Amino acid sequence: HVDMVALLLLRAETDMNARTTAQQQTPLHLAAMHGHTAVSDELVRMGADLNLCDERDFSALMLAASVGHA
Prior knowledge:
Blueprint (H helix, E strand, L loop, with lengths): L1 H11 L14 H7 L3 H9 L14 H7 L4
Helix pairs in contact: 2-3, 2-4
């Protein structure tokens, strides 16, 4: 999955910190919430901001911990 994520993000010149409309979560929030550690690491390596919070004021790390992935 990691190689494909990196390829898609690089090819599309995607904003690593784009947010969902529903809960204002970033790709890093979603990867962390679902336990995709390698994808999370790759997003951070590619420039994702670790400090952004969603609408509940959860960072990606806080969100991962809240569902048992940290």
